[in-house]
Write a structure and sequence with these properties.
The complex is a heterodimer.
Chain A: H1 2-29, H2 34-39, H3 46-56, H4 62-74, H5 88-123, H6 128-141, H7 145-159, H8 182-189, H9 194-229, H10 232-239, H11 244-265, H12 267-281, H13 287-296, H14 300-328, H15 330-333
Chain B: H1 2-5, H2 36-46, H3 48-65, H4 67-70, H5 108-143, H6 148-161, H7 164-175, H8 179-206, H9 209-216, H10 221-257, H11 269-276, H12 284-312
The chains are: A mainly alpha, B mainly alpha.
């Protein structure tokens, strides 16, 4: 097991270095020099320009700049936002709980609907149910989620008036951010109606963000179940006269879940990409919207830092999924 | 498929061998070997969804080509007496503007028809770029396992570590917004899938006898790569290409929606949605139709891709 883990970690290091190189070069690839970008259209005297270049370290050779960047990175310093003058890492982690809360709810929604749908489609292969689940899943998979979000707003916020259009909670509620998770904080605050308001704000964004993972999970669960249901041990279990729910729920599902868990884990990258769109539509104050705003405001240090942090997050989660896969599937662990 | 492609030698001795494909006119064989295309169509047409997808794709291509003739109006023409006119079946609508008009009085139907052009061009260029560069990188990685392989594959890992839309957004931020830059960015984002796929199939093919035979008989590197090995790696790449087409359309539209893609007044579907956002609660049609067009296009290509996979994957073929 240790060897397995070390191999996976070893593969991660070059990827991580690659990601640092990309986010480092990114800011230097933009046409024009960084200081001119910082000051914008106001213009700047040559002396001040040189001084600022020296202050940010842009006058040093490129390799030295890169080493400095890495050195700062290990100190937990990703530079300061040009717009707010706050440390990038602080901004990121203030907003991150909002994205985490939204992604978690989206993933719960996707698993809670996708898993049973995939299982029942596999069990009744070829039936109307199977066909309609697969058709719905393919539609969900093809969905432009930014449009889906707008449609849901038209229906549920516009016509029915059930859900709010944007934000995390109504402005009348105000309390300390203890955990950063609105659902927990609103409960802790003890204010009447706060939790309800937080839930109402969360529903539509979660559905929108969860739609594509839901479709992927339903499709993968179905194919994993179909594969497992054809195995000899399932036939044996059936022949022994076990009730169908035991055969499906215990013998088949446990083995099908091995692949499904991996698929669920790999949705993290997709969720982060989707968060940019979902958070922008619903004005959800998370890292996705922050990154998009930073790109539009040309706040490049923020983009650089955000890119690095999100890529690292995706890599770490993928590693965890890999390890988890090895843990639950001994065949992989002992393959080498 | 693989076996049929193997006897590709230049030497064609006149042997009375009626097992060879193309020897039908000998008349001696009771069972004619089916043409690969016929066989392909038999498997493909079994999947009703795939055939439906193919029809929609053909219709889209026709609309895109003949948009100038088919569309009732010019996509940029503004009719100042008809701001936000609803579609024909709703009160206040008329046959003049079947799907209604947008906030500046432009005909929705004409804009959506012209939008098909952009989406299809985006898909074609992205897939062509991604596929050709991906195949080249993948083959080089497979042929030079020592040096090229680790470098290329780690680079692909880096691209895969960054969420696709984020990477595309950042690249467009560097290159500047616009349709061409969107296509470049999306092509780079999908590169790893093609590189991995072509490398993996090339590595399997390289251990086959026919490759060794070709090598021994003196085939050069490029001949080995592109003439001997590549044709046998194509089926999964074709499937991936179709599926990438749909994701390319989707991502390009998302970038357009975020204001980074085609710039207004270009009738690109994502850009149209971005323009329509402020009217969502007043005029549902300006939001609904462009998105529906994206969904139908993406769905059609995905359906077709699923059908292609069933037809081209020998593992799934029932004997």
């Amino acid at each position: 097991m240790l060897r397995f883990l070390l191999t996976r970690l070893g593969l991660l290091i070059p990827t991580f270095i690659g990601v640092t190189v990309i986010s480092f070069t990114f800011i230097r690839l933009i046409p024009g020099d960084p200081v001119e970008l910082l000051v914008g259209e106001r213009g700047i005297s040559p002396e001040r320009h040189a001084k600022l270049m020296a202050q940010f370290g842009f006058d040093k050779p490129l390799w030295e700049q890169y080493l400095l960047f890495i050195y700062d990175l290990f100190q937990g310093d990703l530079g300061k936002s040009v717009v707010t003058k706050q440390p990038v890492i602080e901004e990121f982690f203030t907003l991150f709980p909002a994205t985490l809360e939204l992604s978690t709810c989206a993933l719960i929604f996707a698993v809670a609907v996708g898993l049973p749908a995939g299982i029942s489609a596999a069990v009744r292969r070829g039936s109307m149910l199977d066909h309609s689940v697969m058709a719905t899943a393919l539609t969900g998979y093809s969905m432009p989620i930014f449009w889906w979000g707008l449609l849901l707003i038209i229906l549920f916020s516009g016509i029915l008036g059930w859900t709010p259009v944007s934000g995390r909670i109504e402005v009348v509620y105000f309390f300390d951010q203890v955990t950063g998770f609105m659902l927990i904080d609103s409960l802790l605050s003890g204010q009447e109606g706060a939790f309800r308001s937080a839930v109402r704000h969360l529903i539509l964004p979660s559905i929108v963000l969860g739609t594509i993972p839901l479709a992927v999970i339903a499709r993968q669960t179905r194919s994993a179940m179909l594969e497992v249901l054809g195995e000899d041990y399932v036939r044996t279990a059936r022949a022994k006269g076990l009730p169908p729910w035991r055969v499906v729920g215990l013998h088949a599902l446990r083995n099908a879940l091995i692949t499904v868990v991996t698929v669920i884990g790999l949705q993290v990258g997709l969720l982060m990409a989707g968060a940019i769109l979902t958070e922008t539509i619903f004005a959800w104050p998370g890292v996705g919207k922050w990154l998009y705003d930073s790109i539009s405001r040309r706040d490049y240090p923020s983009v650089q830092g955000g890119l690095l942090l999100i890529a690292s997050l995706v890599m770490v989660v993928n590693l965890l999924v890999d390890v988890l896969y090895g843990l639950i599937n001994p065949r992989i662990r002992h393959a080498r | 498929m693989t076996d049929a492609a193997e006897p590709r030698g230049r030497i064609a001795p006149k042997l009375p061998d009626d097992d060879l494909p193309g020897a039908e006119d000998a008349g001696a064989t009771p069972v004619k070997p089916t043409h690969p295309l016929v066989e392909f169509w038999r498997y493909f047409s079994e999947n009703k969804g795939a055939v439906g997808g193919l029809f929609v794709v053909c219709a889209l291509v026709l609309v895109a080509i003949f948009a100038d003739v088919l569309a009732p109006y010019h996509p940029h023409e503004q009719y100042r007496d008809h701001f936000l006119q609803p579609p024909v079946w709703q009160e206040g609508g008329s046959f003049e503007f079947i799907l209604g008009t947008d906030a500046t009085g432009r005909d929705m139907l004409s804009r959506i028809m012209h939008g098909a052009r952009f989406s299809l061009i985006i898909g074609v260029i992205v897939v062509t770029l991604s596929l050709s560069i991906g195949i080249a990188l993948g083959l080089f990685a497979a042929f030079f396992r020592r040096f090229v392989d680790p470098m290329v594959m780690r680079l692909m890992d880096v691209i895969l570590a960054i969420p696709s839309l984020l990477l595309a957004l950042v690249m467009v931020a560097i290159l500047g917004p616009g349709l061409v830059n969107v296509m470049i960015a999306v092509a780079v984002v999908y590169l790893p899938h093609f590189v991995r796929l072509s490398r993996a199939s090339a590595v399997t093919e390289l251990s086959r006898d026919y490759v060794t035979a070709s090598r021994v008989s003196g085939a050069g590197l490029f001949r080995l790569m592109f003439v001997t090995v590549l044709p046998n790696c194509m089926p999964p790449l074709i499937v991936q290409g179709t599926l990438a087409f749909s994701t390319a359309v989707l991502d390009a539209a998302a970038l357009g929606f975020l204001g980074m893609g085609a710039q207004p007044p270009t009738p690109e579907w994502g850009t149209m949605l971005a323009d329509a956002r402020e009217f969502i609660l007043r005029a549902w049609w300006v939001v609904t139709f462009p998105g529906l067009a994206i969904l139908v296009t993406v769905l059609a290509f995905n359906l077709m891709g699923d059908g292609l996979r069933d037809a081209l994957d020998p593992k799934l073929k029932r004997s």
